[in-house]
Specification:
It contains one helix and 46 strands. The protein is mostly beta strands.
Amino acid sequence: MRLIVAFSAMALAFALSPCSRGATFLSGLSFIPATNAPLAGLLSLTTPVDTRISVLVSDGTDVWERDFYDYATAHSVPLLGFKPDRTNQILVTAYDKNRNAYTAAQPLTFVTAPLPTNFPTSVVLKSEPSQMEPGYTLFLVRGGNGPPGYYTIIDNSGEVVWYSPAPNPTAQLDVRQLNNGDLFTEFEPPTNCFLEMNMLGETVHTLSPPAAYPINPHDGIPTDHGTILYLSDVSRMVSNFPSSDTISNAPLVKTNIDDNPAVEISATNGALVNVWSPLDLLGPTRVTYLTYEFKNGYGVDNEHANAILEDTNDNSIIVSLRDQNAVFDFSRSGQLKWILGPPAGWSTNFQPYLLTPVGTPFEWNYGQHAPELTPQGTLLVYDDGNDRASPFDPPVPDQTNYSRGVEFSINETNMQVSQVWDSSLADEDRLFTTVVGKTQWLPQTRDILVTYGYVTYVNGAHPSAYSPGATMVRIIEYTHDPVPQVVFDLSFFDYTNTSATYAGYLIYRAERVPDLYPHPVEPVADLTINDDSGIPLMEFSADPTHSYLIQASTDLVNWTAIGAPVQEGGVGDYDFEDLNADQYTTRFYRVVTQ
C-alpha cells in the first residue's frame, strides 16, 4: 500500500478562475506519427492550468477512449492502439482538478497506412473474446527463412494494433514487456546487447554484457532486484564424449562442447554478478537424440539452453536445456536441487536429483522450452516432444508426433512430479513443432496461452501441400479444464501460397500482456473536499486499474480505513462521503492505492 495525499476535512476545494471551453484552452495541439511504429504517435498540447487528458478515437469502424491521470500543463502523450488502413479522428478533452472539461473544437486526423506488403499473413481460426483473457498478445514474427521480422501486438480479435520492424538483421528471438510499458529484447553477437525500446519504436537504453559471456538470444530477463539473467555461450573441451547419439558403442572422443552458462549482470552497468555452468552442474557426457542436431562455432550443441527464470520463492534459478530434454533447478550457491526430464542416461551421482513421476496420465518433456512458474507453484512447460525417446530406444517419427503445453506439480520434499494439465487432451488439431514454443498462465481467466511457433505437421501432414518446408505458427488459448477447450486460435500462414519455395513463418514466443500502456501507482493529484450539507465529500480522479481505500485520522499518526470510494460520472472519477465526520472536531483523510 502507498500513501498518496492527506487533507483536512475542513479544507476548501481549490477553485479555478472561469475560463472558456474548447480550443482556446487547449493550445499547441498536435499529433506526430511515430517513424518506427506506424500505428502509434505522439500527442502534444498545453493548458494554462494543470489538467489531465482524455482521448476519444473514431476510425470509421471502432470507437475507443483512453484516459490519462497525470496532471500537467504541458502534455506529451504516446497514443497506441490504432489499426492499419484507417482514417482516425482524435478528439482531445482536458479536465482540470475541479472536473471541468475542455474539449478541442476540432478533432485531429491520423491516417494509418496498410500493413507492409511483406507483413506475415494471419488468419483467425477461432475467437471467443468474452471467454478470453483480457489484453493484447505480443511477439516477434518473422519468415521461416530468417530475420528480421516485426515486433507485433494484436488485440483479442486478432487484429494488429502495433508493430515495429525488428531493428537489426542480427538473429533475435524474444521480446517482452517491461513494467514501464517499454519492450525488452536481446541480440546475439556481433550486435551483442540488451535493448529497451519504447512504444514509439525508439531506443531508450542499450546494455552490453561482459566480453567473456556473450549473449545467447534465447532468453534474457530483468529481475526485480536490479539485475539481468541471461544465457551465454562458452567453448569447453570435454574428454570421453560419445561420438554418436544413435550407436551405443560409438568411440569416445575429445571434443569442444558449447556450454551455456546462466549469467547474472547488473542492469545498470553490465557488471558481472554471477555465473553458473550447466556443464559443471550436470556433467558433460550425457547424450540425447538432439545432441548432434546442430553444431556451432563453440562446439557440439549438447545443452542448447533456451530459458532461464528466477524462483523468488526460494531464490533459486531454473534453466531449460533443450538438447538434454531437461529442466533443472539449482540454488544461487550452485547446489543442484532437481532435474525434470526422462531418467535415461544420467550417471549414478545424479540419480538423487531426478524427479519420479506419480499419477496418470503422465508424459515426459522432450526438447522443451519456456518453463514458467504459476501462482499455484506449478511449472508450465512447452513440450516440443522431439523423438519422445532416449538413446537407444526407437524415436517417434515427426509425422506421428505431437507438441503440447503441459503443467507439472513438483514435490521437492518427496522428489516427485505429477502432471496437472495437458493441452494435447483437447479435441483439436494435433500440432508438432521441432523447435521453439511457449506456455503462459493467464491470471484472470486461469486460461493457458500456448505458442506453437514452428509447426511442421498438422494432424500428420505438412501445413503446405506445395512446400514441405513451409512452417506454420499457431497461437492458441485453452481453458484450464481437464479436457481443454479452445477459445482463441490464430494462425500465421498463407494458405493461398502455392510456391514450392514458400517458407511460412516462425514465432519464438508469444505472450499476453494486460495493456499497451503501463499503469504505475501515482499520487492522487486532485483530491478535493467539499461540504455536502455538512458531510465531507471527497472527490479525486485516478487510474481505475487500481483499487483505492480512504483512511482517516485525528492526529496524522494513527490511521483507520473508513471505506472505499465509488466511481461517479466519468471513468476514473471517484467520490466518497464520510457520514461519521460529525463525531470529530478535526478529521484528516488520505487515499491509499491497493
